[in-house]
Amino acid sequence: MDYSQLSDQEINAMVGKIVSKDGLSIIASDGNAVIHEYADCGEFKGICLGWKVFDPCHSPADAWPIIESNGITIINDKNCFPRATNDSFAFINEQYDECLHALAGNPLRAAMIVFLMMQEANHA
User: Looking at residues 76-98, what average pLDDT do you find?
Assistant: First the structure.
């Protein structure tokens, strides 16, 4: 899939569908992607608190858990757009066929594209 053709909101919704506990993610009427938010309240575990805006393309709080748990690296190269990869050694050594990588003007968007590419590769 050519993720460069998708809007940030579409990428947010696709990522949200994968990482949300219930597999639901929608684009609300205001254009934001939203997912269910869950929390533990005392003895009650996994209580749904309702919908929350989910914006990993712009919010480090939404993106970082995905980046960290999937071993994604963000590389800010002064000579190129920010990019992301799931294998920084291969990327630095330009062995592109051995890693998933993405170029984007926004490093968090690049990381989310790499995450989606990883999911695609896992299901191929």
Answer: 59
